Amino acid sequence: MKKKKILIIGPPSLGYLKKINEELKTYDHVDSSILLIDRYTFKYRNFAHKVSNFLYKALLGRNLKKEFVNTHIINNVEILGKQDTIFIIRPDLLKKSTLDYLKSKTERLEAFYYDSTRRFPDKVDIIRYFEKVYSYDKLDVEKYKLEFLTNYIFETSNETNHENIFFNISTHDYRYEAMEKLAKYVHEKKWKKEILVLGPDDLTSPYLTIIHKQIPVDEVAKRIKKSKAIIEIQRKEQIGLSFRVFEALGHRKKLITTNKDIINYDFYNPKNILVIDEDNIAIPEAFVNTPYVDVDDSILNAYKIDNWVAKVFNL
After folding, report:
1. Confidence of residue 114 (pLDDT cuts 50, 70, 90)
2. How many CB atoms lie within 10 A of CB 76?
């Protein structure tokens, strides 16, 4: 039996993409590969090379790092050969000429937009390259006639030995002020917490733990298991559900979120999920102290990575 060749292309994303590839590897009739859109693998040969890149960008609008990534992708696809499906996450990071090349190397070129076009507008113009574009953003799905697809649960657990009440990890961006306000609220309630922000060396906070190196998803999962609830501040330009939601579902943790659209999903239960206003934070003690209510397996299974992969890749 001829194996179905599937190639996943996307940014490192701390390990989330590798979870898809690992699941594909469980199929005997699938030959899967993964290529990372990772500009950090680019290394300047010397100082003159670094200066050259600056001049290329300033005078010609060229970026040697981006060109390196595109060349890396093309060279590796040439080695891998024709694919039945090429599935790209964040295709806006690639040049259009690279998308043209990839289209010539597969029967089906597909994409998953797990960030909205309002955050990355370049995604709109490249929809035409794909046989199918999935999106977790309902507004984009309706406006551009895309296929709705959430993120996925890649691990489950039932840890009840909690070292912390609340856990969060995020980057230092415009959500920082709201996250610090939330951390201060939790601190004043004397609830245990581990709220991490990836930020610059000079960033300090009395309520947040500032880190300077990204933490892989498997390490994040260990920290989630030790907590009772996950908290998140949703990006304002998105309504899609972040991985924090699916980590909460998989690990049976309560969730405190600013994403108001979450109440429209079939797994929503106000005993497990609290929607807050970042400008007027209120977390009832009853929500924190009551136990997690299990979500029915018939609902939960639809979001697990095995079903997600089977659906997306028609397996």
Report:
1. confident
2. 14
Rounded to an integer, what distance in angstroms lies between the CA atom of residue 255 and that of residue 276? 10
pTM, rounded to two decimals:
0.85
List of domains in the chain = 4-149 (3.40.50), 164-295 (3.40.50.2000)
Q: Which residues of 261-300 are buried (b: 16+ CB within 10 A; e: fewer)?
A: bbeeeebeeeebbbbbeeeeeebeeebbeeebeebeeeeb
pLDDT of residue 44: 42
Band of residue 63 on the pLDDT scale cut at 50, 70, 90: low
Residue type, 46: N
Strand 227-232 vs strand 164-171: parallel, antiparallel, or unpaired?
parallel
CA 230 to chain centre: 16
| Sequence-separated (6 or more) residues with CB below 8 Å from residue 281 | 181, 182, 185
Q: What tokens appear for 43 in the block?
A: 């290394």
pLDDT confidence bin for 12, thresholds 50/70/90: confident
112: β partners: 89, 134
* pLDDT of residue 49 exceeding 50: no
- At 49 the three-state DSSP class reads helix
285 neighbors 135 (Cβ within 8 angstroms) = no
- What is the Cα gyration radius of the chain? 21
Alpha carbon distance 187, 190 (integer Å): 5
The length of the chain in residues reads 315
* 9, amino acid identity: I
> Given the structure tokens 């806006």, which residue do they identify?
92
Under the banding of pLDDT at 50, 70 and 90, the label for residue 196 is confident
**What six digits make up the tokens of 305?**
């990575």
Which structure tokens are listed for 19? 């979870």
